[in-house]
Fold this protein.
Amino acid sequence: MNNPILEARGISKSFGTIKALDNVDFFLEKGIIHGLLGENGAGKSSLMNILSGIYLPEKGIIKIDGMLVNRLNPDLASSFGIGMVHQEFRLIDSFSIKDNLTLSKSNIYKNDFDEAFAKYSDIFALNLNFMTPVSELSVGEKQKVEIMKLIFNNSSIMLLDEPTAVLTPQETVQLKISLETLSQEDEKTIVLITHKLKEIKDFTEKIYVMKNGKMVAKNLDTKTVSDKQLIELMMGEIKTSKFDKNNSKGDTKLEAIDITFTNEQNIKTLQNVSLDIKAGEVLGVAGVSGNGQVELANIICGIIKDFDGRVIVKTKDVTGKGVKSRKKLNLSYIPENRLGVGLAPGVSVLDNSAIKEYFKASYGPHLSKNVLLNSLNDLINKFSIKAPDIKAEISTLSGGNMQKLLMGRELISNPDVIIAAQPTRGLDVSAVNSIHNLIINQRDKGSAILLISEDLDELFKLSDRLIVMYEGKVVTEVETELATIENIGFAMAGINE
């Protein structure tokens, strides 16, 4: 590699006894789209946080344009042209697009904003007035503005963390075109961090792979490396499962009838939503985040009780009743916010494993140590959970093991109805495969499963039927075998084809 725009050598970083980065080398070529792959906990985020100045390395050197940089901080990283788009948007909703783009003191486009905005709006297919408040933008539009912020801050090195996670298939294709234009015409250097192999192959020219804090592959040619090679580099040989559809469905276990909900801001987030799921069936819910999926899940699970319509669980009308009424009918909920809603932060692995036991009348609010240990050991054995220290805070587990603990805790009672929201978000290939097997195993045991996911590949793989939600409505319902990615994608964008 000749004269890399960024050169990181021998980077090491530890957090307590955990070696997050171990003698890592990483190089970026100017005007190239690079991919960074690795399991959860492989060190990708730690490396990006060092490059963007959030963390200081314990060992190693960083050169930018051949210049040795010591004690890099966020302001200094920005001055060297390094910018990062995180998974969580960092826009100010009450500000206009223009205000968000021109907040930086170093902004080079303030004097010719109109011209620059027109240019990059065209590149990103952002057909909006720059005075539009960010609060009025769709999730996909917000993602585009986040990336444009880097451009308007004169970032020449752009670090993008899971940028397609919230996009429709059509928006993903458009983003690919936009990033290629930026790399070719503006010579932007781009790093794409994603767990989606297809996008790594579609978007990038060079690929780096991390495992256990080490860089195990560098500067791979995207055109010649195979998916199998990438997976084996990340985690060894993984056998992914192929699932047959279940043709023996039972009685209806869950019904939502004409659900309408208006939130505290007086916005109608659900409008006459109806669905039904039979025993042994997976109903997939597709849709870009923010189109009513969270509210629907919370209504079905009893978290939201004030709404119009009816919820029927196992022929019992539970409308207006709370969470306990669903639990008594053997309904389990795997929320999308695994740490905070599903699992209690700051609480031990042991206590999190036995949360459901606390609600059992036979035990009351106090549980014996043996009950706790038996509950956790049962989960560890049945669901292959890696928990080296059961007394440690739950946050010490990897994302995959946290999710397996959450799912195991909810599935061990063999529930009749399961609401699973984004069950594999942010997980690596191995963890995803484990979660998929758990879902299908429960389907085969006769559970009725509502699967809410933004990953269309996941929905097509696991679901018997699909519905698409847009602006709080069910706009499409189809047997999965009859659906196409393209048609579902259009429906997610509110386009009738």
User: Anything to note?
Assistant: Residues 252-492 form a domain with the Rossmann fold fold (CATH 3.40.50.300).
